[in-house]
Amino acid sequence: MRRRTSKRYFTLTFVTFCLLLQQSTAFARGDVRAESRESGSENAIETLVQRRAKNLGTGMNLTFLDHHWKGAKENGFSDFLDSIDVQKRKDMLREIARAGYETVRIPVCFSAWVNNKAPYSWRSKAGLEALDKTVKWARENDLNVIIDQHHPELDGSIESLTDIERIEWIWKQVAERYKDTDPDRVYFELWNEPHDIEAKAWRKKAARLITKVRSIVPSHSLIVGFHDWNGRQAMIDSKPFSDKNLIYTFHFYDPFVFTHQGASWSAEGLPDISGVPFPYDKAKKINIPDSAKGKWAGGLIQNYERDSSSKKIYADLRAAKEWSVTNGVPIYVGEFGSYTKYADQESRCRHFTVLYNAFRKLGLPNAAWEWDGGFNMFKNGSGEILPCV
User: Fold this and answer.
1) What pTM was computed for the model?
2) How far apart are CA 381 and CA 188, in angstroms?
3) What is the bridge-based pairing of β-strands 222-224 and 144-149?
4) Nearest to residue 239, comparing CAs of 286, 199, 277?
5) Is the separation of the CB atoms in 155 and 161 below 8 Å?
């Protein structure tokens, strides 16, 4: 005997199907909401992208695929990579995971391996192969991975390197290469520290990149910062983009005269500044070298007592968090740290402690700059990690 099926049954089934389809589409966009009990609120909710941002936790930058300056300019810096240096990262990633870090941010200078003018092509795929290994080793150690496009301008001498068509081509190749990675564990950061560009022009450029990459990786969360070197204030002064699956990043190197004392690549006068303790100590006079007098760096010394206050640092980070809450979007501190050339170890540890305490209190995921190199995380002259980190 044939069972009669009512029209009501078909209607309900169709409605259920539509709801499930709508939910799966929302999941891909990153605006699915899940229950959360953070901040003491039983009814608080968080989006998928907010959960992913929170899961970034405490992270570390692993630098080496961004060291374009080690290559020859006549070769477009494309020969900067050292195969021995690549292999060393396998053990480093294991050590990073053992130290308790949850995420590794991998700065990559894709620009060095791509020819300067259209039609674009790879000069060398050695860097991509090295990145493949690094991502694989990171995931084997259960680390989240951020693939960060770093230094697209190289040394800044060729303006066309940052043409949007060229950067779109690069991201098309990268996104296609990693589109099948786990979107809950692998993230794409579109452009590190955009600078020498007006806010409106950067916004237009970033919007194009977001659209390009999103067309290839519909479910992955993208990380994007703002003009003025991923500046905190630049972020606060800006509005979020329309894409709902974005994590917004800023870098925090305050107080800059402490974190960058002796840095030869930075602002005029900073290479000659040394002996800056953290925090300000009236018993330790900081000399302003002639090269910094009347310059931005000299002004930083004059304001150092205020700028090195833990209250000032916390207030600045809280302002970033308030922007995040007001706009309902997640944020991420993609870089922070201090250059080891002149900063003493005790001051560095005090600085790290102030920052990590603020990050924990405000719920800010973060990535220190850097595991090794000039901002490294080790005790002076040893491979032992600083106790404060």
Assistant:
1) 0.90
2) 34
3) unpaired
4) 199
5) no
Neighbours of 382 (CB within 10 A): 8
Pair type for strands 366-368 and 45-47: unpaired
**Residue 50 one-letter amino acid:** Q
| Residue given tokens 């949007």 in the structure block | 164
- For residue 71 the two structure tokens come to 């290559």
Task: Return the half-sphere exposure (C-beta side, CA atoms, 13 A cut-off) of residue 338.
Answer: 31
Taking the CA of residue 378 as centre, how many other CA atoms within 13 Å lie in the half-sphere pointing to its CB? 13
pLDDT-derived band at 302 (thresholds 50, 70, 90) equals very high
Nearest to 377 by CA among 67, 96, 76, 6: 96
Q: Distance of CA 154 to CAs 122, 255, 386, Å?
A: 16, 26, 32
Q: How far apart are CA 193 and CA 225, in angstroms?
A: 7
Type of residue found at 382: S
Q: Output DSSP code: residue 99.
A: T
- Given a cut of 50, whether residue 180 has pLDDT beyond it is yes
The rounded distance, in Å, linking the Cα atoms of 179 and 245 is 15
Which residue, 173, 174, 110, 182, is CA-closest to 143? Answer: 182
Q: Give pLDDT tens digits for 124-151.
A: 999 999 999 999 999 999 999 999 999 9
pLDDT for residue 380 = 86
- The amino acid sitting at 55 is N
In sequence order, what DSSP letters do the residues of 113-151 get, joined into one string?
A: GB-SSSSP-BS-SHHHHHHHHHHHHHHHTT-EEEEEE--
Dist CA 325 CA 240 (whole Å): 12
Nearest-angstrom CA–CA distance, 172 and 149: 12
d(CA 50, CA 41): 16
Cα 347 from Cα 61, distance rounded (Å): 21
Strand partners, 60: 104, 368
Instruction: Determine which helix (DSSP H) or strand (DSSP E) holds 27, and give its type and residue range.
Output: helix 7-29
Listed residue (150, 163, 149, 159) closest to 208, CA to CA? 163
